[in-house]
């Protein structure tokens, strides 16, 4: 007699739950930007020429990212605005912006009008309050009245202006940053008094945690290198080609993922990608067993089949756990940017979009599972399971601080409460390769589903590319395939 394995049953329940949950709970949908890179460049250059800012964007390689207004976003989510209401609001005030970083200068552009609504690290000389008013009227029009003035931490003066409420409780505001008789920044934005907008470009604690993450990766790379040298001296390295090819695949994934997401890859991104790839390679090299790699491909494929299948099923379970986590926190005001990945439509040709989801899955699954599961878990387990779970979850979580959320640290809670412990269990119960496939399917399918919500033909193609590893399982004969689905009982 056969019966379904518990994991299969749990994954079926997970699918049913997700269908019911997302049919009942719908997230606000923001319209996709209509401006192009050429429109953005033209607007910034016009502003630069008008006020002698000397911004040279054409000869540079700026990064482009989309950033939602969290004050308006939380207001929209609370009142469950329809797509039509959201689209009407975009004609009144930017609900999200396209962020452009050119060297040290930072600009934000309205994604529908190409109006420059924010600039930082500029220098426009003024000699009187009247000239400030003239600047405001020239750039943003009439109607703004000064409502506040305060001194920043660095001694600059920030003046706040308001033009009143535009729709509902959303107030149109403008900040002008002054120092030494010059305007060094401005920012036009919408704000709801109930949900204060964080107008600072960078959060100190986020930056600190990201630095801790980077230093941690460098330390791991150094320690692993020392271990490699010792093993080389003892002739304990069993294989080279397999770890090299897998690490190379991860490095290619990181490069294309970053390039498609930001439109460019700067020196810093290349350097850090190189460190991640190198660290992945060294760890795989010192932990590899010859028997795992030096086999005919057909045997390796057969060996991978349970890991692929279990990874796919575990991905469904993990998706439910994360969905429940954010569903609960949403009741307490947590918010996630609806436009987090919109920049890929600005940076990436339509035909290359499926590659983005594929790259996202490949690079993160290989590198992160190698570093945080294959290497850190055995290292931390000597101090106990609880310490190992907490430490690996925290370090893994702070590596994901670039996501735009409220509160900003909710991603750390997600990893420490849900994702980190779950992947610790997967690694211990099902093994390293299963953890890689679970991570791969999770990242790639999330990216593919996002693409489906925007351009469904591209999203469907992305799903097909994502599921290619799953075909390894389908190569089994029907009889053998059943052994993965069922377990026999007497």
Could you walk me through the main structural features you see in this protein, from its secondary elements to its overall organization?
The protein is α+β, with helices and mostly antiparallel strands and 490 residues long. It has two domains: 10-15 and 203-488, no CATH class; 37-192, no CATH class. The protein has 18 helices and twelve strands. It has helices spanning 6-24, 37-50, 70-79, 83-90, 129-140, 204-233, 241-262, 267-287, 290-293, 297-330, 343-347, 353-380, 385-398, 410-430, 432-454, 456-466, 471-474, 478-485, and strands at 2-4, 63-68, 96-102, 105-109, 116-125, 145-151, 157-167, 170-179, 182-192, 335-336, 405-406, 486-488. An eight-stranded antiparallel beta sheet has the order 2-3-4-5-9-8-7-6. The chain has a two-stranded antiparallel sheet with strand order 1-12. A hairpin with a 6-residue loop joins strand 4 and strand 5. The relative contact order is 0.11.
Number of alpha- plus pi-helical segments: 18
Runs in which pLDDT lies below 50 for 5 or more consecutive residues are: none
Give the strand content.
Answer: 15-25%
The major beta sheet can be summarized as: 8 strands, antiparallel
Globally, the shape reads: globular
Q: Share of helix among residues?
A: 55-70%
Total separate domains: 2
Derived from helix and strand composition plus strand pairing, the structural class reads alpha+beta
State Rg: 25 Å
Please trace the helix and strand order, writing H or E for each element: EHHEHHEEEHEEEEHHHHHEHHHEHHHHHE
Measured between the Cα atoms of the first and last residue, the distance is 6 Å
Average predicted confidence as pLDDT: 87
Biggest sheet strand line-up: 2-3-4-5-9-8-7-6
Number of strands: 12
Pfam family, one: Rce1-like
Keywords: Hydrolase, Membrane, Metalloprotease, Protease, Transmembrane, Transmembrane helix
Domain CAAX prenyl protease 2/Lysostaphin resistance protein A-like: 352-444
Protein name: CPBP family intramembrane metalloprotease
């Amino acid at each position: 007699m056969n019966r379904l394995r518990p994991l299969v049953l749990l994954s079926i329940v997970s699918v049913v739950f997700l269908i019911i949950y997302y049919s009942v709970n719908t997230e606000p949908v923001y319209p996709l930007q209509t401006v192009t890179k050429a429109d953005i460049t033209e607007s910034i250059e016009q502003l630069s020429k008008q006020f002698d800012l000397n911004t040279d964007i054409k000869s540079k390689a700026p990064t482009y990212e989309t950033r939602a207004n969290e004050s308006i976003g939380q207001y929209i989510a609370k009142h469950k605005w329809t797509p039509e209401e959201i689209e009407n609001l975009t004609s009144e005030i930017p609900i999200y912006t396209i962020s452009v970083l050119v060297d040290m200068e930072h600009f934000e552009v309205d994604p529908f009008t190409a109006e420059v609504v924010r600039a930082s690290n500029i220098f426009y000389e003024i000699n009187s309050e009247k000239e400030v008013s003239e600047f405001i009227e020239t750039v943003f029009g009439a109607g703004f009245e000064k409502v506040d003035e305060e001194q920043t931490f660095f001694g600059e003066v920030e003046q706040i202006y308001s033009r009143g409420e535009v729709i509902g409780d959303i107030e149109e505001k403008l900040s002008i940053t002054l120092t030494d008789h010059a305007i060094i920044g401005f920012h036009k934005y919408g704000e709801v008094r109930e949900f204060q907008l964080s107008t600072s470009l960078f959060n100190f604690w986020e930056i600190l945690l990201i630095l801790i993450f980077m230093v941690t990766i460098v330390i791991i790379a150094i320690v692993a290198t020392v271990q490699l040298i010792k093993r080389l001296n003892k002739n304990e390295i069993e294989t080279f080609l397999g770890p090299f090819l897998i690490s190379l695949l991860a490095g290619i994934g990181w490069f294309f993922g970053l390039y498609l997401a930001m439109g460019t890859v700067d020196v810093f991104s290349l350097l850090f990608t190189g460190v991640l790839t190198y660290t992945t390679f060294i760890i795989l090299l010192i932990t590899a067993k010859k028997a795992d790699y030096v086999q005919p491909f057909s045997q390796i494929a057969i060996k991978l089949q349970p890991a692929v299948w279990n990874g796919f099923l575990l991905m469904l379970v993990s998706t439910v756990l994360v969905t429940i986590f954010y569903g609960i926190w949403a009741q307490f005001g947590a918010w996630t940017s609806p436009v987090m990945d919109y920049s890929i439509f600005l940076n990436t040709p339509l035909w290359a979009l499926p590659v983005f989801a594929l790259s996202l899955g490949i690079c993160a699954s290989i590198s992160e599972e190698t570093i945080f599961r294959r290497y850190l878990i055995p290292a931390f387990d000597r101090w106990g399971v609880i310490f190992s779970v907490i430490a690996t979850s925290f370090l893994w979580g702070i590596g994901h601080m670039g996501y735009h959320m409220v509160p900003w640290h909710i991603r750390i809670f997600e990893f420490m409460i849900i994702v980190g412990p779950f992947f610790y269990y997967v690694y211990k119960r099902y093994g390293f390769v299963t953890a890689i496939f679970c991570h791969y399917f999770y990242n790639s399918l999330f990216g593919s589903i996002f693409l489906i919500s925007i351009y469904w033909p591209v999203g469907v193609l992305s799903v097909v590319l994502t599921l290619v590893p799953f075909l390894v399982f389908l190569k089994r004969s029907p009889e053998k395939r059943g052994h993965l689905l069922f377990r026999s009982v007497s």
